Fold each of these.
Amino acid sequence: MSVSALADQDALTRLCLLLSELKVRESLLEYRQRGGYSRTAWGLSSDEIRGAVHASGLSGRGGSHFPTGRKLDAVAGQSSPKVVLVNGAETEPGSQKDRWLLTLRPHLVLEGAQLAARAVGAAVVVLYLPEQDRRVQESVSSALTELRQERLSAVSWRIVAAPRRYVAGEESAAIQRANGKSAKPTLKPPYPADRGVGGRPTLVHNAETLANLPRILTAGPEAFQALGTPGHPGTMLVTVSGQVRKPGPLEVPAGAQLTDVLALAGAPQPTAIQAVLPGGIFAGWLAGAVLQQGVRLERDSLRAFGVSAGAGAITVVSDEVCGLCQAVAVLQYFAKESVQQCGPCTYGTRAMATLLLRVARGEGGAEDLSRIEHYATAMLPRRGACGHLDGAAAAARTTLRVFDRDITRHMRRGSCGRPWHVVVPELEEIDVH
Amino acid sequence: MSTERDAQREQGAMTLRINPILCTAFGFCAEYVPELFTLDDWGYGWVRQSTVPPEQIELARQAVTLCPKRAVLLQRSAAPQPSAANSFKK
């Protein structure tokens, strides 16, 4: 399905798509007029809800792409009481899609959370929202007030503030925060489905994932599967940033061609694109040269090109700036954002950033590159309590392949001749000398 | 899921890992049980191979006992879990 075909879908299957038409928060009345809180969805039993979610093929939109139906089953099978945690922290640099959804259509997420609570038998929903974002908090609070006034609130709600740091968005960090501790990841197991908020079995889902439930349960799993690709049905929210004319969030068919999505955001011609982060900094770098080989925003397609699926945070780097500069900035961010709980993460992220900066300065040699490669492929993967270190390793590993020509020039002359300027959002500029 | 994993479980294979939050680089594991551990560039214990065959389980148990931080974990190989290991959910 092409990206433009989305515009022809009817109102029910494009519940999310309406985002681009909204300027202010959708009220509960408006949401219900567009199909929210339907008798169809709320007439389903918890088993039927889980069955429909399985049949839809919905997968986690926060980066794991884990089948949502299986996660619901894992929590439903536990003993009560249970909790649902809506993860709206969205700490990926440049990502705005969950914030966009929560600001303009909070009812879509809140109804999704209530349906998920019904599916697993939970009576409490924790809303984990970015502490620095007043608009999200106000929008969600107003929506909750409306739900209570209309007696459409079937659970008790609790808002927990997500600190603005990278790993605070990781699910075990979210649970720690909800339990009154600092938002740092824990070692798994125990998984949230076994022991989460207050020690209770907890279903953790990204806000966008839950926003899909109302439409799946109202229009049916078949309508959902008619969108996207067989391996990745539905739609997905992405945020395009970097060197594009129209940066910001978009809804596209899941599994869309990356070149189509980039064109929608006003990116340069694929031949003028040096590299892309297709899923966020933790998913790795993709060379601009492979864009026309049919890369799709789907796990298997992205994996075939050496990157992981990611969370829809797409950054474009044109050939007008130094690519290695972006790669160094990403590794420095990983080092700065390590919460220093795990030794390999504390020292490994720092070592990779230092070595790559040395190469960029023209002070490094082949032995530095092989050291980075050894760290990124052998010594560091799977050695942190969370995925932070794995994300840094993926960023470093793909850097060596995607920016190989820049690296050669920098090793010879300390420069590739292009401006040293960071275009990846939220990352700090680096002093090269 | 994987029949290979099931086979390992039946033969009593176990999984060895280090809790990286607890590990503070004493290095006893690599010093006393070099068959199963080495050290990384910063002195932290590094498991050579996470699946421990039955004949090495006794060695692995020694490492569990030796670690002053109780950071060495020896667990029965488990079935894959939702949102396992390398997922970085946001």
Amino acid sequence: MNSFERVHAAVNHKSPDRVPCDFLAEPIVWERIMNYFGVTTQEEVLDILDIDIRSVGPRYIGPPMITDDKGLHEIVISGGPRVKRLYNEVGDYTEGIAWFPWADVEDPEDLLDRTHWIGKMEWWDFSHVEEDIDRINEKQPRWIKAHGDPSGLQHLTMWVGDEKFLCDLIADEELAIAMIEQANKNRLEHALKTLEAGNGKIHQLDGGGDYGTQNGLLISKPMFRKFFKDLYVNFYREIKKNFDVEIQFHSCGSIVDLIPDLIEVGVTILDPIQRTAAGMDIRNLKQNFGKDLTFHGAMDVQQVLPKYTPEQLVEEVNSTIEILGDSGGFILAPSHNLQFDTSIENILTMYETAQNRKIRK
Amino acid sequence: MILEEISLKLQAGKAKLVKELVKQAIDEGIPAQEILEKGLLSGMSIIGEKFKNNEVYVPEVLVAARAMNQGAALLKPLLAAEGARSTGKVCLGTIQGDLHDIGKNLVKMMLEGKGLEVIDLGTDVAAETFVKTAIEQNCQIICVSALLTTTMSNMEAVVKCAEEAGIRDKVKIMIGGAPVTEDFAKKIGADAYTPDAATCASVAADFCA
């Protein structure tokens, strides 16, 4: 099987020749693994690891993102949230949002002319998307994904600030709804244009919104239904009307209580399966939702990948594939970007075990 | 009765009403300490328990805490005049290298809901800052939070730093955050790991009792 056929089988709940694999990592891990293999591009690493999935999307050509006088730099778009970079002793850094562009919004009128995630449509260049896909597929046909979703909880908290937005959901509903609507502008058009630019060669649309914590949902199910669910219903309906793509939904944490709603709105792939969170036991997930969902992720970055010995990890990979990969329905990946505390040894052990072949030098 | 009403309105996150009711209770001559305990803290304690049991979620806790703070602000000068003292003092923060703070802030709200005084050191806090604050402010407890596996390891420095400063037997060190476990707490020599904000506040209150 080639990569496309492998993922296609898995998402259609048929057994592939081996479990499909995906790869996510922090920049320092990318750097380390490129050094290990003696290559200079991420694409070469993905080829060596035989990662089945590739990501494409339009390029941002809007106004340049700035670094302010406090050293905070903008992310996503010009006028977006600003992050602070913290360095630590091993030379890596973590980033956290330290400035929120909508923190001062107190009234729906304050939102006039405010931009959100997409900014303006003319800030995006879609012209090269198909070309990029063709280049990827030259070696072998891969499973191609692109990003697109309506404004979820995380998109709002990143712009407004966690506490302010979560309070507004109760204390100022009118404002919360106005912010959600403003944040949703251009998102559907952007996703449709991306898929259109892919000319039928994009197989999956990724989105999500982080509705979970380690112990349960971040907001109640009724609140999800009241503020967010219809956005997903409408968005995915429009997407599916025009394009035959799988819908992947990302939410960290314990979201088991939300899964039936997600299936209902059209989600077909769930990411990242944070199995250490409450109620996210993979046997139960497979048993209860395995017919409707493909699971993406599940290789735990909290307790497993940084801490297990290679021998323990082999066992963990095999048992995860056995449980989640029974009759397809599983794509193996780390449950978050790999951090610098996961060794190259463990990364290679994970993919070697999944693919039953030697990858290391 | 009015104190019960304060508790109920606090649970519903009605900050404005809580403020008005607290004012009314003061005017009725109810001692500030009683308004605090039977009104505000009682309401916050119910919210904390419901949060722990996934009956309410983060937004409900945030608005309840906001209502508590508004009511407590009115009581503060009166409590000082009554000679009331907080049941304990805690300094808390997110560990060095980590900027995640929603979990830490929820812990702060729950601690205050137990009547404890909290010094919030914010995020990206060095081990030395925790210990220096604990010494200068006479804190009985240091609470340290981390979300990342890569920053969690910095928590051990807080324990070591407290040992070096000679205050290890005078201060309890509590840790928490998504990747943190009981085993990890034992390994670094912390006094307690708690899995959620409400449990943290209960354990902290017990430490101060």
